[in-house]
Protein 1
Amino acid sequence: MTYVREFKGFAGIRLEADDIGSADDPSIILLHGAGQTRQVWEDVAVALQQAGRHVINIDLRGHGGSEWPEDGRYDFDAYVEDLRAVLAQMRTRPVVVAATLGGWIATIALAEEAATLAAGLVLVDLPMTNDPDVTRTMAEKLRNLATTRVGKPDYDVRFFDRFDMSGVIDRINSAASQINIPVLFVCGARSNLTGGAQAASFVNQLPDVEAIEVEDSGLLVTAERTENFNALLIDFLERKHPRFVSEFREGSDARTFRDALGCFATGVTIITAMAPDGSPIGLTANSFTSVSLDPPLLLVCIANNAGSGPVLREAERFAVNVLQIGQQPTSNRFAGKGEDRFAATPWEMGEFGTPVLTGSLSSFECARDAVHDGGDHFILVGRVLKAMFEPRRDPLLYFRGKYRRLHFA
């Protein structure tokens, strides 16, 4: 099924897209380049739908059916914020497939928050040149095509006057190391804009990347070698973002069970107590929940083999410190080994003799109420003696093995 769908972009601009396939299938967003429309992706969109994918094929602002803003707002950051707005309106995290200008937009839009916004990124024909003469020649060619076209052109020619690419390549290179999701980088072997040392430098900074040069292709791989590109794209998606539902059954791989549990988003806590020798101890845990309001009870689950486990099992008092987004380094510190955790962490002695981490989202000082065995963990139930919280902070979240933060639509 295909229908035209509208998204609200940056500053309320209307963005038009083809919505193709079932929304229950894994989603793909297609982003075209400058001087193009979503029509350039039609063959790719059909192949994706036939491969069981839900496709959002969108026109950039000032292109095709999307709004051409009266104020001529075509700066690079407006395009970046358009994509971030679209991603906020998606039901699930999609894989973004982006060509040329679309690739620049997607790279910057996903920097720092890639894992919270998208499941993967495919960059096609990403220009990595700073040569102003090449850029000017391409812009003039597209401008001439628009002005000589009979009827309304496919894109607003004001784009070429308002879009400033100075500094864009530097921003792209700076963003590369922050794209912590699977990336497929595709370019034509004969292209002088998307290959070479600059492209190699960019690719080498991506944490999880596959780079492929398509033989006998120049700048436009998707047009010149459509079938080859479709095969590469679908293979990447099947491996990195599969359609099937993962399944665990008792007795099978424990990692699959762990991954299933990871689908439940949690906060992150650090459990602290004082050892018998008077030294503070603590560890990171996300198996934390409330148990009762009257009496006020909570519980945490501690691995039996945790270094601080024996102390926590016997401690008469302990504290649960719920972390805020600025405390991700603290979480990593208390999850690791071989480091003086408290020396690098601001803390103070709580009213009831437990270490309390200052600056936390909330802290619960507890008396031990009960301890229960639970397989390879033990369940520590605490009676809350005192709770403090800071309502102006946002929580540090954990989902599917990665830190997250709240995303406000």
Protein 2
Amino acid sequence: MSEQTKTQAQLLQEKLALKRKNLGQELPDSTIGEADAYCEQYKCFLDNAKTEREAVDTIEQMAKDKGFVLYEQGKQYQPGDRVYYINRRKAVILAVMGKRSLAEGVRIAAAHIDSPRLDLKPQPLYEDGEMALFKTHYYGGIKKYQWTAMPLSLHGRVVLGDGTFVDVKLGEDEGDPVFCVTDLLPHLANEQMKRTLNEGIKGEELNILVGSRPFKDDKASELCKLNILRLLHEKYGMTEADFLSAELELVPTYKAKDVGFDRSLIGSYGQDDRVCAYTALTATLECKDPEHTAVTVLTDKEEIGSDGNTGLNSAYLQYFIQSLADAEGVPYYQVLSHSQCLSADVNAAFDPTWPDVMDPRNCARINYGVVVTKYTGARGKSGTSDASAEFVGQIRRLFDEKGVKWQIGELGKVDAGGGGTVAMFIAALNVDVVDVGVPVLSMHAPFEVVSKIDVYMAHNAFSAFFADGQ
């Protein structure tokens, strides 16, 4: 339709109304191809980084490959220098030094690398019904029934009695054994099926089947348990007491996969929030000679409130910024007060099977680009920082100018629930911050789904943020 044949209302609507469009229709095939290619390495990252420790190890190697070196406290770095700092092997900070003084602030991207899972209790191994099992305590918000009758792998670290440690990763390689939580067959589950969905599987019923063959001896007791202890001692040098000083986690065994006939989606465990961690990471690795120092913090413990010394409710990010500032002779509070942050975390995508919990005018959608979330929290915006109009306006202009396709999002209808991110902990440092991330289907499930286009736009968003000279 030509401009001459359009009605006044049509012209006015084009000029004034907000338009949102599926990027699969809007983007050229070349850009969609770039998104698909980018996500191939992202899938590899997901497979290699199923726990926060493994994520740190993977990130450290990727950083070294791009010329990053371990940060030296007290050293004054020059523009273009690339450093990283690791906090207790569970969180990592990367920085690319900028041309401008730190007094003008830094640009921060903050994502988390922990995900919901099943943790072993301190004394997990027991025998019942001539089977050996592990007791677990779930980590983060999960639907417990989703973790039954599926293959799980065991990951983590065991500190032995002599102070040495052994890392465990069992169930990922071809030929490895796997583990599982058993469930009742439908024919005998009449009483279980009367429970509410939330109580269909209770926390104390998330027990991991780990063996069934007894040790061949008629004089000892709990022979199935004893046989597992024997195998653990032979493979890892462990005794039962070593569980007391272990961090062992159960996660799904399967690898990241393309989803759909058109391969437009990625399904995997742990995409909340490793999808934002990876996209922020790659933007940092590609960042060269920024105006402002670019800082990416990939943190732990977000799924349980960010508490603990590896979560962003601790001071380690603040201490890192302070150390940079001290080396330049700038008050660290001045650096933070002039800094800006993209809190890199996911948002819930509209699911047509479950539309009632979403406000369709304000929810994120698959294939509509990276999501800007002004506030999270619950009900009366409790537990959020609520970004200012000025900062949202700045990010909006930046993304539009740089061709980053983005959408606005909200975490469900008012009173439907809610959630939080690390944004409020960054805001507590007097930093301007807004949430920016990828929309996710089946969030917190063992198999989460995202769009390849949205993943690529998240990478472009963080790249544009680091490159911004304003």
